[in-house]
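Reference record
================
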Amino acid sequence: MPGARRIVTLVPIVLCLEVRAQDDAIDVLALLLRERFTESENEARKVGPRLLNAPAGTKRPTSHRPPATIAKF
């Protein structure tokens, strides 16, 4: 096979393989992220709701209403 024809044949093959490799890498990343988020969600369900910036041992609020000090304009 002449050199020019060989290059014309190899370039599309290499481009196709590159696209497949990128697609596979994205699939693996999505799988890993889904696994991590599932683990985090399960852990959050076990622990339950928490107060932000609250010291350890602080009781949870009894109501989940927004603060009454929101100004309406």
